[in-house]
């Protein structure tokens, strides 16, 4: 069975991006290398600060839509409840921390 992820990546300035993927390590590498043109590349949003896993793609997409509808403050509260230091959680999925350290 496939596992799907809704995730939040942040820049050093705490610009946030919410996304969905079935391959979280690959997607984080894409954010870090600029392989995904647009918002995340422009704002250097490349630190994994939050993620949830699920086996039902529809429920994961619904959760993504829910999070995207939240205010920035509410997203920050969600992140801080599980990751108070806004640390790069990439190490939890087998990747090194982003080159310039934590998302501050």
Automatic annotation (TrEMBL):
Origin superkingdom: Bacteria
Domain GIY-YIG: 2-77
Record's protein name: Putative endonuclease
Matching InterPro entries: GIY-YIG_endonuc (IPR000305), GIY-YIG_endonuc_sf (IPR035901), UPF0213_domain (IPR050190)
Source species of the chain: Longimicrobium terrae
Record carries keyword Hydrolase: yes
Keywords: Endonuclease, Hydrolase, Nuclease
A Pfam family per the record: GIY-YIG
Family per record: Belongs to the UPF0213 family.
MF GO annotations: endonuclease activity
């Amino acid at each position: 069975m496939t596992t799907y992820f809704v995730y939040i990546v942040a820049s050093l300035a705490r610009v946030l991006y919410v996304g969905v993927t079935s391959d979280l390590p690959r997607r984080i590498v894409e954010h870090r290398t600029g392989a995904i043109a647009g918002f995340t590349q422009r704002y250097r949003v490349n630190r994994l600060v939050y993620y949830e896993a699920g086996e039902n793609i529809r429920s994961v997409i619904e959760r993504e839509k829910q999070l995207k509808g939240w205010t920035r403050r509410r997203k920050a509260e969600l992140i801080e409840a599980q990751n108070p230091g806004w640390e790069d959680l990439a190490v939890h999925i087998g990747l090194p921390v982003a080159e310039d350290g934590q998302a501050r």
